[in-house]
Design a protein that fits this description.
Blueprint (H helix, E strand, L loop, with lengths): L3 H15 L1 H15 L9 H5 L1 H19 L4 H6 L1 H28 L8 H26 L3 H15 L1 H15 L5 H25 L20
Amino acid sequence: MPSSTKLDKLIPAAIILFSVIPVLGGVLRLAELGGGAEITPDNARFFASPVPVVVHAVTVSVYSILGAFQFAPGFRRRRPGWHRAAGRLLVLCGLVGALSGLWMTVFYPKPDDVGALLTGVRLVFGTAWMVFLALGVAAILRRDVTRHRAWMIRGFAVGLGAATQAVALTAWLVAVGPPDRLSKALLMLAAWLVNAAVAEWIIRRRPSPARPIRAGVALALGETR
């Protein structure tokens, strides 16, 4: 089994590498908005109301990259103060990222490849992301580390959905061509379900026994021993 030191490097690196595509997508969107790019039918909604997409891109990028280090077991044990402080920021970024995503889903004009099914899927998982984070916070306030860890892992799996979706959509584009409304909705749903399944496997594979912890709110992605 890899040592804790190796895991501290491998796990965050793997998650960050997996998050590169959506993070770069957010960076490119910000550059587009800030650089005065040509307004087209595909980006007109972002120029008409840029704040939600800017907030979403920034918060989800921070959530993905900073959250990766919460999966480094030795790092968390050596720096419990960092674990708590980063966790508070992660919860804030996750909630704001989910809310901005929901706002865009409801109020932005729908592009041609987004139908009712994909809209519904986004509303379900965006809401679930907020609920999972809230349950994780409630659990740590009760000093229930096991449930805190589980809910925060589930929340991270939802928040990282864009990475899996990018892989799925790219693979489909290469193999089949541009997806239609139904294909895009099913691919994005499948990506979220894959993340949810992996999260449940992680939670059940290495359960952490509940135990008392010091007073204070440790809002982070939970411990793995």
